[in-house]
Each structure stands twice: as C-alpha cells, then as structure tokens.
C-alpha cells in the first residue's frame, strides 16, 4: 500500500513533536523549580542574616534609661536638703564599674562605695561562677548615662533607684574555652542600683534583709510615716533624730 510509509512518517513526526514538547516542558519545570528553590534558599539566608544583623544592632545600640530625675530630684532635695545628686551619680557609676572588675578578677576587695549587703551580693556571684568553673570577663566599660528611675518613700523607708546605660565587651570562658559572648563586640545593657537611706546603720546591721530600714517609734514601735517627724502619731512620744544617717548602695541588677 503506497500510503503506509507516508502514514508511518506522519506518526513518527507526531511522536517526535510530542517527545520534543514533553522534554521541553520538563526542562522548563526543572528550571522553574530550581529558580524557586534558589530564591527560597536565598530568602531564608537573607532572613537569617537579617535576624542576626538585627540582634547585633540591638546589642550594639545604646540602651535608653528611665530618666525621671527631673521629677524625683526636687522631691528628694525637699526631703533631704543635704543630698548631693551629682556626687551620688558619680559614686554609682564608679561602683558599677568596680562590680564588673570584681566579677572579672574574682576579688571583691576591688568593690568601691558598696554596703555590706552589696558586697555580699557580689561575693555570692563570684562564688557561683567559681563553683561552675566559669570565668566572666568585662572590658572597655563605658557608662553612657545615669538617671534617677524611681524614688520609694513609704512608712519611713527611702530608696532611690538609679538606672545606668552601660556599654562593655563581655564574654565567658570555661577551661579557657569561649562559651558565651564575644571578645570584640560591644554589648549595651541597663543596670539598676538601689541607694538606701539607713538610720544608725552600725546598730541596725540587719537592714539588708529588706529593701530599706523602716524607722519606728522607740516607745510603741509604730512606724514613723513622715521624714523629719518629731513626735509619734500613735502614742505622742517625742522622737529624737539620730545623727547617724547614711545613704548606702545596697543592691544592683541588670534589667
């Protein structure tokens, strides 16, 4: 039959066209899939890079402090006319730097302007690090800003909370191996330091068990609710003010 070769040729051409179309479609699909996978991988890498960059920016950006000095300082100066804020602020910053030096060296004797309560707090932290076989290192310490963040005055108790924005290089090692932090990157943190007003601190040595000493009437034991109060509001007994007033730094914390 003379048409059979023609029919076979047409069928072969159709099959070849179908194969070509199928292969071309498969190639396009593979290319499209590879592009999608590549974009996904790139986006994932970009996201992870963005997260890491954001984290690094947060660590390196100076922290803002709760600056309530303008509000609280006039109140404090009315209650304590001899209070010198600038000297207090400088002592707080010196104290904070000395805390980091103590933790780095393991020597609490380097602590400056600290009460017995604060010395005990730092001593316990040093001992905890020693028991874990961990060394913590602080360097390039910079205190950007210190402000009064809170003034607590209740039932004769007085606490000034100072807040500092601090920058430093901080890392931790164990058996000489870096386990946390960076030896080069600067971290930014915030710290609170509590300044307590203590009456007759030498006799009231147990003040560290509470946030501050509550002053009481020597006759009936009622709380003295107002600073400078001359008589007990409950029994009427006269109150003799002691001269052994003192502001002491009693506690610190990273926030």
Automatic annotation (TrEMBL):
Protein name, entry field: Zinc-ribbon domain-containing transport protein
Keyword flag Lipid biosynthesis: no
Record domain Tim44-like: where: 75-192
Record-linked Pfam families: Tim44 (PF04280)
Taxonomic lineage of the native organism: Bacteria, Bacillati, Bacillota, Clostridia, Eubacteriales
Ranges that cross the membrane: 6-23
Keywords attached to this entry: Membrane, Transmembrane, Transmembrane helix
InterPro entries with a match to the protein in the record: NTF2-like_dom_sf, Tim44-like_dom
């Amino acid at each position: 039959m003379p048409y059979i070769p023609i029919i076979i040729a047409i069928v072969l051409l159709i099959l070849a066209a179908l194969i070509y179309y199928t292969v071309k479609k498969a190639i396009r699909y593979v290319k499209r899939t590879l592009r999608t996978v590549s974009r996904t991988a790139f986006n994932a890498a970009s996201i992870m890079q963005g997260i890491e960059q954001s984290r690094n920016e947060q660590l390196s950006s100076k922290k803002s402090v709760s600056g309530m000095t303008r509000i609280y300082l006039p109140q404090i100066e009315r209650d304590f006319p001899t209070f010198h804020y600038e000297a207090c602020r400088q002592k707080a910053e010196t104290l904070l730097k000395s805390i980091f030096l103590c933790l780095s060296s393991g020597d609490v004797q380097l602590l400056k302007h600290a009460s017995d309560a604060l010395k005990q707090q730092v001593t316990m932290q040093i001992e905890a690090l020693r028991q874990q076989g961990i060394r913590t290192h602080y360097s390039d310490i910079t205190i950007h800003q210190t402000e009064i963040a809170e003034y607590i005055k209740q039932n004769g108790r007085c606490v000034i909370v100072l807040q500092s924005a601090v920058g430093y290089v901080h890392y931790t090692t164990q058996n000489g191996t870096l386990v946390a932090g960076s030896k080069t990157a600067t971290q930014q943190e915030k710290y609170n330091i509590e300044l307590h007003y203590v009456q007759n601190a030498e006799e009231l040595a147990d003040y560290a068990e509470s946030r501050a000493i509550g002053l009481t009437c020597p006759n009936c034991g009622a709380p003295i609710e107002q600073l400078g109060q001359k008589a007990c509001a409950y029994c009427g007994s006269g109150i003799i003010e002691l001269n052994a007033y003192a502001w002491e730094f009693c506690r610190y914390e990273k926030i």
